[in-house]
Task: structure prediction
Amino acid sequence: MKEFDYIIIGGGCAGLSLAYELEINDKLKDKTLAIIENRPEYKRDKTWSFWKVFDHNFEDCVIKSWNNFSINTSEGFHKLSSSSFPYQSINSEKFYKKINSKISSNPNVSFFKNLKELNSKNSLIFNSIFEYKKDKSKLWQHFQGIEIETSKNIFDDEIINLMDFNCDQKNDVHFFYTLPFNKNKALIETTWLSNLEDQSLMDYDLQLENYIKNNLGIKSYKINFIEKGAIPLFYPSLKNDDKTVNIGSAGGMTRLSTGYTFLNIQEHSKYIVENIDQIKKINEYNMGKKYHFLDKIFLKVLKKHPEKMPRIFFEMFKVSSNSVIKFLSNKSNIFEDIKIISRMPKLIFIKALFN
Ligand SMILES: Cc1cc2nc3c(=O)[nH]c(=O)nc-3n(C[C@H](O)[C@H](O)[C@H](O)COP(=O)(O)OP(=O)(O)OC[C@H]3O[C@@H](n4cnc5c(N)ncnc54)[C@H](O)[C@@H]3O)c2cc1C
Result:
């Protein structure tokens, strides 16, 4: 059986980001890499969006960048702008194509369908897959998005709507998210923060149809693309050791209060490659203990008081836009943290801290 210096299990966002980072930093000139990926083909399956708080390798895969954002609740509409940190969306198909064409020219990189095809005894393994047990106590961000195209120009493509809470919450947290790629094309998502047990929240097609018709006032459109997913808002129980490093969602790269993962994966990949010969140092990495702590409290409040979340998000976005963006992108300083925390309802957060 073949042996490799490095094995990446799962050639998705984290696996391919790491492979690309290894390749562009010449770490695969005299080392071999096997990527284990079982999908039959790479095609557009996701749209990764985030605030660009640092430069990344995939500017050429960006569909669009925006400087204006809004949030709506029954209490009103709040608009924010930031020229320092644009919000970007990446087309996963372009991302997969770019990376696969770069790494396929290196004879030291090979793809396999199953780890059993290799002898992995002496390899350093980067794992991006993990299985979840169904559990009522676990929170997920689950959603479906459709990219729609209209015959007339109806969207304002200068501004995205991050959260529109003007919809049925059904005792959970529910909002719509609209990314207008141009004046007649937008990705519209229905998003829930809840456990995954309640099937009545999952009639996503109907939710989208009603929202587009009744809230956006759009009568006719065609659907170009559908994406569906569930992001765990809890950390996996996987542990790193001196042979295996977990990456991506499996490596705890999801920010639990937001579901944002893409840019954290990029930062993690860079860190791994910079320290590729020091496994101990690689295993010291974390996204920021402060955010682990704050998100844990935030999610306790969310579970106990879902009805308060539209207001809590609305208040959070009233802080200066750069502060809130940095906070949500794990880049805030202590003064920005205090600004955000001071807008939260004190009593329920203090209670959550002690429960
Ligand atoms: C639809 C969707 C939209 C998202 N949008 C955003 C966003 O806008 N912004 C953001 O920051 N985050 C977003 N996320 C969250 C996160 O960025 C993505 O889930 C991201 O893809 C996580 O990367 P990953 O490498 O951990 O997992 P994946 O990208 O899912 O990669 C895992 C890979 O492992 C492969 N695999 C699975 N099982 C096996 C097996 N047994 N053998 C071999 N291969 C296997 C899969 O085919 C896949 O390619 C989104 C998630 C989803 C699902």
